[in-house]
Amino acid sequence: MAQRVAGIVTFTVNPGGQMAVRGNCTISPSSVERTMLAGQDGIHGYQELPRVPYVEADFTTVPNFQVTSLLSQVDVTVVVNAANGWNYQLTNATCKDAVEINTRDGQYRARWEGLACREYQ
What we know:
Elements: E1 9-14, E2 17-18, E3 21-28, E4 32-39, E5 42-50, E6 54-60, E7 76-82, E8 87-95, E9 100-102, E10 107-113, E11 116-120
Antiparallel strand pairs: 1-2, 1-7, 3-6, 4-5, 6-10, 7-8, 8-10, 8-11, 9-10
């Protein structure tokens, strides 16, 4: 049986509303990063450090939306619903990067980083 595993995604910022996702939506819910530690005599274990969860995507430059308004987004909630039924909620998020607008393609990329990202169904 064929099932949808990729494609349609909805991307909502609260407050702010639904965004016009163009493509390349990336979700990174990991809250830790682990690195294996090796010595001259073998593997000693691993190091674990906190990591900032994030979501980012390419968006279409739709009329009546000011891209620069993203820079004022702090302490927002970002919800991403993916085509395969996976859903993610990034909380206490802020729009991180300087937004770069590609006028040739009519799109821009934005990234939000937050305190926590949870997966739910």
